[in-house]
Amino acid sequence: MTEGIGNHMHWAAQRNAVMWCVTFTDGITPEEVLTAYGFSPDDARTVDWSETLEWMADRDRPDATVFPLRFGRTGEWSFCFEKSTILGSSDDVLARLSATTETISVMLGGGGVNRFGCWRDGREVESFEPGHPRRKPAPPHPWWDAVHERIRATGERYPGMLPVLEVVAERVGAILDDETLDGQLHTVMMKDPYR
């Protein structure tokens, strides 16, 4: 399933991306994910990516920058994709998402700090910075092992976040591809938390 994943996930392969975060949560609805992020379903519109950009242009002003969060489903897992924000890597959001299930978070952070996290039943199971083999989490660390084995298999010093997403795709049983992210998804706008 993960062969040629980069051909279907250009959003993750962009070397000039500043920041993004994606969470996958097993067995809950996109509306429940949206609520765990602190939004009401009434805050969301179901729009495609081009409509999202139009909505951002309407709401994006120098004094009130906004960022889109897009919610959907892939197989049995619901997801939230954030472009230019990393709310889904915070402990409080991950604890709410995983309260009765499993949640996986992958973050490309600003300043070169990236994160992977797996939470179950409201608690962190494993967390680490992909690509830093000397910073192993406490054992057992099956995610760390799988991710770093995949990174080594690329033969590149730093292959980006695609190897991480390949390992996640195997667990989730689906790829969060460009077509899905460009399509109709529940979308909310978050104000810039740094303003």
Describe the 3D structure.
The chain is an alpha+beta fold and 195 residues long. It is 30% helix and 27% strand. The chain has an 8-stranded antiparallel β-sheet, with helices on both faces. The longest helix has 13 residues, at 142-154. It is globular, with a radius of gyration of 16 Å. The model has no long low-confidence stretch (mean pLDDT 89).
Largest sheet: 8 strands, antiparallel
**Global Rg:** 16 Å
Task: Count every beta strand, where a strand is a DSSP E run of 2 or more residues.
Answer: 8
Overall 3D form: globular
User: Beta-sheet strand percentage?
Assistant: 25-35%
Q: Give the strand order, joined by hyphens, for the main sheet.
A: 2-8-3-4-1-5-6-7
Helical stretch tally: 7
Q: Helix share of residues?
A: 25-40%
Top keywords for this entry?
195 residues; alpha+beta; eight-stranded antiparallel beta sheet; 7 helices; 30% helix
Give me a quick take on this structure.
The protein is of the alpha+beta class. It is built from 7 helices and 8 strands.
